[in-house]
Automatic annotation (TrEMBL):
This is GntR family transcriptional regulator. It comes from the Bacteria. It comes from Pseudomonas rhizosphaerae. InterPro entries: GntR_C (IPR011711), TF_FadR/GntR_C (IPR008920), Tscrpt_reg_HTH_GntR (IPR000524), WH-like_DNA-bd_sf (IPR036388), WH_DNA-bd_sf (IPR036390). Keywords: DNA-binding, Transcription, Transcription regulation. Residues 20-87 form the HTH gntR-type domain. Pfam families: FCD (PF07729), GntR (PF00392). GO terms for molecular function: DNA binding; DNA-binding transcription factor activity.
Length: 230
């Protein structure tokens, strides 16, 4: 590119990427920039500008934007096209409530079948979460921790739905950890859930997970109530 870099170029960079990797590279660059706040809510994301930045046609760009829209990170606005979606909206609490039902059932099925390697991996996720401040890495490790505890649930459709919820949760994660100050509490929850799972205490593990997710619901509802009163 020539001339003064655009805002999007300064955030995402510009490089020629192989056509077969274009969709995944563009999707991941945009997701990372949304998670860490470099792309603020409401910012327009132009297809042609992305195509130019990465030296590709608009087809892989459209595919990447569709994926991010499906994950709740972008929304389509009349006359503006794709824009960065709000971190929190009216259905965020409902999303957490649905996760509570699905994930508690997955954990209930999985705990009796977890192995030592699963416990060790989950513990490693906790330790790495405590050492990083990168929200992309926090999101990845948080998802990996939960996935590990649910992995042995013998219901593939349930796990697919759980995984969709974990991916969607990532748009709330920075809000809950940063804006609502829940980071230390979340890590305490993770440690307690893991201990209960190690002890094969299914009822306690499920109850701790329910409380963990309820904190997210409560934080979102407080924020929405405060916003509506302003």
């Amino acid at each position: 590119m020539t001339g003064k870099p655009t805002v999007l170029a300064s955030i995402l960079g510009s490089e020629q990427v192989p056509a077969h990797l274009a969709r995944s590279v563009i999707e991941e660059r945009l997701r990372a920039a949304i998670y860490d706040g470099r792309l603020p809510c409401g910012m327009a994301i132009r297809q042609q500008e992305l195509a130019t930045l990465f030296g590709v046609s608009r087809m892989p760009v459209r595919e990447a934007l569709r994926q991010l829209e499906a994950q709740g990170l972008l929304k389509v606005v009349h006359h503006k096209g794709a824009v960065v979606a709000p971190l929190i909206n009216h259905d965020s609490a409902e999303t957490y409530a649905l996760r509570m039902l699905l994930e508690c059932e997955a954990l209930r099925l999985s705990v009796p079948l977890l192995e030592e390697a699963d416990f060790a991996f989950a513990q490693d996720c906790i330790e790495r979460l405590e050492r990083t401040s990168d929200y992309v890495e926090i999101s990845r490790l948080n998802r990996a921790f939960h996935r590990t505890l649910y992995a042995h649930a013998n219901n593939r459709r349930l796990l697919n739905l759980v995984d969709e919820g974990l991916i969607e949760e990532e748009r709330f994660l920075r809000f809950n950890l940063e804006a609502m100050g829940l980071r230390n509490m979340a890590q305490d929850d993770h440690r307690n859930m893991l201990q209960a799972a190690r002890q094969r205490n299914v009822a306690l593990a499920v109850e701790l997970l329910r409380e963990h997710l309820q904190r997210g619901v409560d934080a979102i509802e407080r924020y929405l109530a405060q916003r509506s009163s302003n």
